[in-house]
């Protein structure tokens, strides 16, 4: 259903470096640059970073990226730690969501809640 999403960021370079690091373990990479806008994806370009147009802080977004397996969630988390991302939740099972839900949550440079999740055992 979702084709792409664009999020406004305060520092395009810092945000691009963050997403370069944390999406690589999930198979994601930079796909396209259009002016200052940068897209990321595995195929296509579903995530766009665009420079913020309003100095007021935006509301927090929650974006969950699919991981092929639990090792990819762990690698996402390690990559986030390597770029000094704020940790919200280290990788673990979340049985309150469902018995195989394995996820890790961190903040991006703009304070958004970014998750990697695997739904397989």
Automatic annotation (TrEMBL):
- The name this protein carries in UniProt is VOC family protein
Instruction: Outline the extent of the VOC domain.
Output: 1-119
Q: Which residues form the signal peptide?
A: none
């Amino acid at each position: 259903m979702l084709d792409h999403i664009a999020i406004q960021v305060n520092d395009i370079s810092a945000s691009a470096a963050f997403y370069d690091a944390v999406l690589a373990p999930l198979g994601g990479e930079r796909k396209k640059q259009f002016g200052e806008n940068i897209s990321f994806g595995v195929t296509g370009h579903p995530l766009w970073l665009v420079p913020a147009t309003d100095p007021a802080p935006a509301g927090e977004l929650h974006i969950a990226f699919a991981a092929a397996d639990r090792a990819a969630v762990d690698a996402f988390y390690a990559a986030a730690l390597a770029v000094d991302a704020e940790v919200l939740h280290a990788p673990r099972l979340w049985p309150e969501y469902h018995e195989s839900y394995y996820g890790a949550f961190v903040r991006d440079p703009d304070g958004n809640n970014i998750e990697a999740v695997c739904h397989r055992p």
